[in-house]
Amino acid sequence: MTKRLPYTLLFIVIAMWVMMGVLRPFLLETAQLTPFLTTKVFAQEMMARHTWGWLLYAASFLQSCMFLPWLGASLLTLVLVAIAYATRWALRLPDSCFGLCWVAPFLLLSRFTRMGYLIYTSKEVAVAFAWPLAALLLLLVLGLAVKGLRALRRGPAADGHKLKGLDLMLLGLSFIAFAGSAYRMWEQTYKDTNFLNALQMKQAIERDDWDEVLRLARDNRQEPTRLQVCFTRLALYKTGQMGDRLFAHPDGSAAYNAPEQNQWLRLMGAQLLYYHLGKTGFAYRWAMEDMVEYGERPMYLRTMHRVALLNGEEALARKYEQALSHTLFYEQDTNILEQEATAIRPLLNYTDQLDGDNGLIEFYLLQSFALTEGGSRQMVELSLMCSLITKHLEGFWPRFMALLPGWQGHIPTHYQEAALMVAQLQGGVDTSQLPIDNEVRQRFERLVEASAQLGDSGSNAYTLRAEYGDTYWYYYFFVEGLKTT
User: Fold this and answer.
1) What tens digit of pLDDT does each residue of 388-397 get?
2) Are 139 and 86 in contact (CB under 8 A)?
3) Measuring CA to CA, which residue among 75, 140, 417 is closest to residue 400?
4) Distance of alpha carbon 437 from alpha carbon 441, whole angstroms
5) Exposed/middle/buried for 404, CB within 10 Å: 0-12, 13-18, 19+?
6) Is residue 18 within 8 Å of 113, Cβ to Cβ?
7) Contacts of the segment 215-220: beta carbons below 8 A, 24+ positions apart
8) pLDDT (tens digit, 9 = 90+) per residue, 184-227?
């Protein structure tokens, strides 16, 4: 017992630290990507579709519990610990070899922790629990078979503990196997900073915690992916800070540390971005297509339920609400849904036609809003901002002037910057009559002077970044080559 307990405690600490400390957002995402309904129909379909349907049903149930990460991590750790003890029992290994019994648990844990982005595209049922449950079942059967064979044998069993030297050697090899397996699991665990940050941003959006999204954007020290940039822009819009802070946040197009670079923004963010920006047809379309491809994941059901409510499709909304009520944790809060709907409805005063985004979510949103004319004040501001982002400034003044009375004498900083720059580049507008802060005017004058002194130098971007990197001017002239997807 004294040789077994340290291994057990150490494994529990390692497994719980990896899952709860490092991969907590990944566990939350795994839960809402796990199809599981407490209905007879779902159970029957699972049994009919798979040879080991009952085992996969149990695995899906357990994996759904990762909605509460401490619970899901505890259940998976419990199963893996049971595998180690079942290995020792089935193979009748001495305590000096107990470290060898943890090789399989570490390997099985790493099958889950190494998935990263692939959790979105995997069609394997309950990837975290299915193989561990199958391994535990196999070991129990093997153990019973060995026990039966031993019962048929005559004579005493051989004593494997007489050779002290051999016992110490086995103990050393056993510890090396344990340590090596733990290290390999850690090395294979997918710990990409941008991925985990994007997951936390996504989950904060799902809680309508927009300030948390912005905090995560500020705290991230890596060049962001386009998904993180889109989430940040959405949070700035929702908190009313888009006109003052958008170009102060880091922009970037870091590669996703995963295969198939072009699909991750769509799989992770399309439904949320389209829904909160009023493109309900696209939000529903991608949720439905993904559900056909990957099953009744709660993530998709939640999107379709929200869109049905926004569209006033009561019967359809009740259908999705009923489905969500048969999940373990995803019943909907009507107060939150109404708050979301109130914020989104001003973006719905146009015909939402599925004219095709070709899977290029950010590109479509930017172009769609940049080319939008009229509509609610929220739509006009989104149109103005998307025009600035895409650097298509032909329609800047009509949008700017339409919004001007609503600003009541205080124009958001980036729109002041854009007005001065567009007037300088295009002419035709006297900005001295606009309520632009003296500080912004003076800063723009310093930029013009600095640019004249520096000339057409390739080092201008680096030289001017410290003073002007948080302005629209810097974005317009120096931020290039970003790949919208």
Assistant:
1) 999 999 999 9
2) yes
3) 417
4) 6
5) middle
6) yes
7) 217/249, 217/250, 218/249, 220/193, 220/194, 220/250
8) 999 999 999 999 999 999 999 999 999 999 999 999 999 999 99
